C-alpha cells in the first residue's frame, strides 16, 4: 500500500512534467523527398529535443481538406502553398510559419519534338492543369492565353498521358515529373512562370491563429525544430533519401528521391537564403497576381498572416512607468505639502529642516529621471536612423516583383533565343549548307531573292492577321497546287515574307526544289531573328541593372549635405526603378535648364522614393504623374503632382506629423513625410503641400548650385 502511494504522489507527477506535447503535421502529398525536412526533424530527435511528439500524416488527395483540419483544433500543423492567402481571405485563420521553397517548382511540360514549340502554340491544344497551380494560369494570361482558349482535361497525375500523346501540355513539378520523363527517355521542354515575372513561393508550413495565441512557445519550438530538420536534410540528401525509402515509402526508388533532392536545392537556396525566410513584398506580389486573376482584392492586409518569431520590443511599459513615477512624485509632493502646511504653525523649524531633506531627495530623483530621459532620447534617435535604413529596404521589397519581371522577361528571351540558335547551329546549319550547294543556277537566284526579302523585312504575323493573309494568297494562287491553304508551301511563303513579292511567287514555286529553297531561308531567318531578340533583350536588362546600381551604390562625396546633385539624372533613376509600377501611369516631365542643387544624394533619393510612392498609391497605380523642375531665384523647385484623390482639408495640417497616416493598418507607419521633412530641413531646404486643382502637389525647395 505504501509503495502504491509513493508512485501516485512522487513518480506520476514527474512523468507528467517530462511528457511530450503531441501535435499533428498534415503533409500535402505522398511520402517523398519534398517533405525531407520533417522526416529529418522527427528521426533525428529535433522535435523531441524541444518537447514535441509529432505525428506525420500522409495525404492521398493533395491539399484538399488540410486547411479545415488545421484550424479545427489546436496542435494541428500543415504543409501548404500560396493558396493559404486565398483561404486566409475566405475566413480561415491560418498563419504561415515559414517558407521552404523560395521559388515554386511548378512548370508546364511540352514534348520537345511536338508542334507546341512556344507558349503561344497552346491555343486550342489539350492541356492538363493541376488544381491550385494558379501561377500557371497567371503565366498563361500574361502571355495573352485564357483557359477558355484551351482544351482542359482532368489531371490524372500520370506522366504517360504526355508521353503517349493523350495530352499536348502537362503541368507538374520540375522536381519530380522531370525524372519520370528523363527515365522514359522522353525529351520535354519546361516553361516556368518566372519567365513572365511571376515568382511564387513553393511549399510552406502553417498552423492556426488559435495555436499561435494559446501555445506561442510550442509554435516557436515546432518552427525551430522543423527548420533545423530542413537544414540537416539538405546537407545529408543521400542519408535522408535512404531513410524515406526504407521507412516511409518504397513507391519511389532511391534514384528518383535523389533526383528530386538535387532539383530542390536551387529552389530552396539553403546556402544563400535563411531557411524559412519569407518576404512580405513577395506575398504582396502574389496578392497582385491573384488580383489580376479576379481571385482576391488588391492590397489585402498581411497582419497576423505572416508569423514573426522575433516580434519588435514594446516600449509601452517604459512610458507607462514614467507616467506612474511622475504621478507618484506629484501625489507624494501634494501629500507632503498639505501635511507641512497643517503642522507649520506648531513646528516651523522642524518642518523647514524636514522639507530641505525632502527637496534634496526629490532633486536626486529628478536627476536620475533626467538621465533616464536623456538615454531614452538617444535610443529614439538611433531608432530613427534604423527607420531610415529600413525605409530603403522596404522600397526594395516593394519593387522586388517588378524588378524580377523587368529582368526575367529579357533573360527568358535570351535563353529561349540562345536555345534556338544552338539548335540551328547543331542540327540545321549543315543541312542548309548542303542544300544550297546543290542548287542549280536558277534555283540559286531564286534562293537569293527570297533570302534578301526575308532578312530585310522581318515577318511577324500571327493569329487573325496570318489567317486572313493565308486565305488571300490561296484565293490569288488557287491555280497552283503547291499553294494549298494549310500546306507547307503556304506556311513558308508567309514565314519568309515572300508574300510581299506577289509577282515572283509563281517563279519561285515553279522550281522542283521550291520547298528546299523556302525551308533553307526560313531556317536562316529564324536564326537572324533570334540574334535580334538577344540584342534587344540584353540592352533592356543592362538598362535595369544600371538604374538599380545608381540607386544602391553611392560614392563618398555624395554623403555630404553640400554635394552637387544632378536632379534630372537622379529622378530618371527613380522612375526606372518604378518602371514596372508605371505601366498604367502617364508620366509628364518638365525639366528646366538648371537642374543641379546642393544636398545629400542618398537622402534626396529617399525623399523622391517616398513622394513618388505616395503619389502612385493615391492614384491606385492608374492616372497621371507630373514632375516639374524649375529655377526660383536661389532655389531649385521640384514639384511632384498626381491625379489622385487629393488631401482633404481637415488633415492638411497633420500630414507631416510623425505616425500620422491615411493608409490601412499594416501598410504604413506614418513616418515617411515626417522623415522627408527633417532630411530636407537638414539640407537647408523646405517641403510643402501646395494647392492643386486635381490630386496633390508636393514641392521641395533646395539650394541652387551657382555656375
UniProtKB/TrEMBL annotation:
<dbReference type="InterPro" id="IPR005467">
    <property type="entry name" value="His_kinase_dom"/>
</dbReference>
<comment type="similarity">
    <text>Belongs to the NMT1/THI5 family.</text>
</comment>
<keyword id="KW-0808">Transferase</keyword>
<dbReference type="InterPro" id="IPR003594">
    <property type="entry name" value="HATPase_dom"/>
</dbReference>
<keyword id="KW-0175">Coiled coil</keyword>
<dbReference type="Pfam" id="PF09084">
    <property type="entry name" value="NMT1"/>
</dbReference>
<comment type="function">
    <text>Responsible for the formation of the pyrimidine heterocycle in the thiamine biosynthesis pathway. Catalyzes the formation of hydroxymethylpyrimidine phosphate (HMP-P) from histidine and pyridoxal phosphate (PLP). The protein uses PLP and the active site histidine to form HMP-P, generating an inactive enzyme. The enzyme can only undergo a single turnover, which suggests it is a suicide enzyme.</text>
</comment>
<dbReference type="InterPro" id="IPR015168">
    <property type="entry name" value="SsuA/THI5"/>
</dbReference>
<keyword id="KW-0418">Kinase</keyword>
<comment type="pathway">
    <text>Cofactor biosynthesis; thiamine diphosphate biosynthesis.</text>
</comment>
<keyword id="KW-0812">Transmembrane</keyword>
<dbReference type="InterPro" id="IPR036890">
    <property type="entry name" value="HATPase_C_sf"/>
</dbReference>
<dbReference type="GO" id="GO:0009228">
    <property type="term" value="P:thiamine biosynthetic process"/>
</dbReference>
<dbReference type="InterPro" id="IPR004358">
    <property type="entry name" value="Sig_transdc_His_kin-like_C"/>
</dbReference>
<feature type="transmembrane region" description="Helical">
    <location>
        <begin position="317"/>
        <end position="335"/>
    </location>
</feature>
<feature type="coiled-coil region">
    <location>
        <begin position="345"/>
        <end position="386"/>
    </location>
</feature>
<keyword id="KW-0479">Metal-binding</keyword>
<keyword id="KW-0408">Iron</keyword>
<keyword id="KW-0663">Pyridoxal phosphate</keyword>
<feature type="domain" description="Histidine kinase">
    <location>
        <begin position="599"/>
        <end position="706"/>
    </location>
</feature>
<dbReference type="Pfam" id="PF02518">
    <property type="entry name" value="HATPase_c"/>
</dbReference>
<keyword id="KW-0472">Membrane</keyword>
<protein>
    <recommendedName>
        <fullName>histidine kinase</fullName>
        <ecNumber>2.7.13.3</ecNumber>
    </recommendedName>
</protein>
<comment type="subunit">
    <text>Homodimer.</text>
</comment>
<keyword id="KW-1133">Transmembrane helix</keyword>
<dbReference type="InterPro" id="IPR027939">
    <property type="entry name" value="NMT1/THI5"/>
</dbReference>
<keyword id="KW-0597">Phosphoprotein</keyword>
<dbReference type="InterPro" id="IPR036097">
    <property type="entry name" value="HisK_dim/P_sf"/>
</dbReference>
<dbReference type="InterPro" id="IPR003661">
    <property type="entry name" value="HisK_dim/P_dom"/>
</dbReference>
<dbReference type="GO" id="GO:0046872">
    <property type="term" value="F:metal ion binding"/>
</dbReference>
<dbReference type="GO" id="GO:0000155">
    <property type="term" value="F:phosphorelay sensor kinase activity"/>
</dbReference>
<keyword id="KW-0784">Thiamine biosynthesis</keyword>
Amino acid at each position: 500500500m505504501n509503495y502504491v502511494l509513493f508512485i501516485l504522489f512522487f513518480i506520476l507527477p514527474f512523468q507528467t512534467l517530462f511528457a511530450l506535447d503531441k501535435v499533428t503535421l498534415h503533409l500535402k502529398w505522398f511520402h517523398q523527398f519534398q517533405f525531407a525536412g520533417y522526416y529529418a526533424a522527427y528521426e533525428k530527435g529535433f522535435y523531441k529535443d524541444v518537447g514535441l511528439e509529432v505525428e506525420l500524416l500522409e495525404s492521398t488527395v493533395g491539399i484538399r481538406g488540410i486547411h479545415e483540419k488545421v484550424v479545427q483544433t489546436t496542435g494541428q500543423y500543415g504543409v501548404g502553398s500560396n493558396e493559404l492567402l486565398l483561404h486566409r481571405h475566405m475566413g480561415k485563420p491560418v498563419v504561415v510559419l515559414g517558407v521552404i521553397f523560395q521559388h515554386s517548382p511548378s512548370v508546364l511540360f511540352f514534348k520537345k519534338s511536338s508542334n507546341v514549340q512556344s507558349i503561344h502554340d497552346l491555343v486550342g491544344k489539350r492541356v492538363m492543369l493541376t488544381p491550385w497551380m494558379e501561377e500557371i494560369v497567371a503565366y498563361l494570361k500574361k502571355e495573352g492565353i485564357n483557359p477558355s482558349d484551351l482544351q482542359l482535361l482532368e489531371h490524372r497525375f500520370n506522366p504517360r498521358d504526355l508521353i503517349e500523346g493523350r495530352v499536348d501540355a502537362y503541368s507538374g513539378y520540375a522536381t519530380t515529373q522531370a525524372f519520370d520523363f528523363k527515365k522514359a527517355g522522353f525529351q520535354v521542354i519546361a516553361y516556368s512562370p518566372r519567365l513572365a515575372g511571376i515568382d511564387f513561393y513553393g511549399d510552406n508550413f502553417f498552423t492556426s491563429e488559435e495555436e499561435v495565441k494559446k501555445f506561442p512557445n510550442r509554435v516557436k519550438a515546432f518552427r525551430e525544430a522543423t527548420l533545423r530538420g530542413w537544414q540537416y536534410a539538405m546537407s545529408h540528401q543521400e542519408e535522408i533519401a535512404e531513410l524515406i525509402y526504407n521507412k516511409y515509402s518504397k513507391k519511389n526508388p532511391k534514384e528518383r528521391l535523389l533526383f528530386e533532392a538535387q532539383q530542390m536545392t536551387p529552389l530552396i537556396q539553403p546556402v544563400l537564403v535563411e531557411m524559412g525566410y519569407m518576404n512580405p513584398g513577395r506575398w504582396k506580389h502574389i496578392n497582385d497576381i491573384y488580383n489580376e486573376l479576379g481571385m482576391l482584392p488588391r492590397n489585402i492586409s498581411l497582419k497576423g498572416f505572416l508569423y514573426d518569431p522575433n516580434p519588435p520590443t514594446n516600449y509601452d511599459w517604459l512610458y507607462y512607468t514614467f507616467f506612474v513615477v511622475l504621478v507618484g512624485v506629484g501625489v507624494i509632493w501634494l501629500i507632503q505639502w498639505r501635511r507641512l502646511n497643517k503642522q507649520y504653525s506648531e513646528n516651523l523649524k522642524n518642518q523647514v529642516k524636514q522639507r530641505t531633506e525632502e527637496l534634496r531627495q526629490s532633486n536626486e530623483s529628478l536627476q536620475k529621471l533626467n538621465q533616464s530621459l536623456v538615454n531614452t532620447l538617444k535610443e529614439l534617435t538611433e531608432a530613427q536612423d534604423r527607420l531610415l535604413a529600413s525605409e530603403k529596404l522596404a522600397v526594395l521589397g516593394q519593387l522586388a516583383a517588378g524588378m524580377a519581371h523587368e529582368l526575367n522577361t529579357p533573360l527568358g528571351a535570351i535563353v529561349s533565343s540562345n536555345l534556338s540558335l544552338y539548335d540551328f547551329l547543331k542540327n540545321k546549319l549543315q543541312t542548309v549548307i548542303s542544300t544550297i550547294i546543290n542548287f542549280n543556277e536558277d534555283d540559286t537566284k531564286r534562293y537569293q531573292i527570297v533570302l534578301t526579302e526575308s532578312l530585310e523585312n522581318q515577318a511577324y504575323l500571327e493569329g487573325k492577321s496570318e489567317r486572313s493573309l493565308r486565305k488571300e494568297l490561296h484565293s490569288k494562287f488557287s491555280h497552283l497546287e503547291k499553294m494549298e491553304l494549310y500546306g507547307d508551301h503556304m506556311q513558308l511563303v508567309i514565314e519568309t515574307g515572300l508574300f510581299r513579292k506577289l509577282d515572283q511567287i509563281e517563279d519561285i514555286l515553279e522550281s522542283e526544289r521550291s520547298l528546299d529553297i523556302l525551308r533553307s531561308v526560313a531556317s536562316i531567318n529564324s536564326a537572324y531573328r533570334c540574334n535580334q531578340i538577344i540584342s534587344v533583350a540584353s540592352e533592356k536588362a543592362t538598362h535595369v541593372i544600371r538604374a538599380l546600381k545608381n540607386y544602391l551604390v553611392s560614392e563618398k562625396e555624395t554623403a555630404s549635405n553640400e554635394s552637387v546633385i544632378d536632379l534630372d539624372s537622379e529622378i530618371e533613376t527613380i522612375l526606372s526603378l518604378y518602371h514596372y509600377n508605371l505601366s498604367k501611369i502617364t508620366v509628364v516631365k518638365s525639366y528646366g535648364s538648371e537642374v543641379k542643387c546642393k544636398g545629400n544624394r542618398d537622402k534626396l533619393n529617399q525623399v523622391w522614393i517616398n513622394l513618388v510612392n505616395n503619389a502612385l498609391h493615391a492614384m491606385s497605380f492608374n492616372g497621371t504623374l507630373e514632375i516639374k523642375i524649375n529655377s526660383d531665384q536661389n532655389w531649385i523647385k521640384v514639384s511632384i503632382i498626381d491625379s489622385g484623390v487629393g488631401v482633404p482639408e481637415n488633415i492638411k495640417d497633420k500630414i507631416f506629423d510623425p505616425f500620422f497616416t491615411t493608409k490601412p493598418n499594416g501598410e504604413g507607419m506614418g513616418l515617411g513625410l515626417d522623415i522627408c521633412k527633417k532630411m530636407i530641413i537638414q539640407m537647408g531646404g523646405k517641403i510643402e503641400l501646395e494647392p492643386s486643382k486635381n490630386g496633390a502637389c508636393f514641392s521641395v525647395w533646395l539650394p541652387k548650385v551657382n555656375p
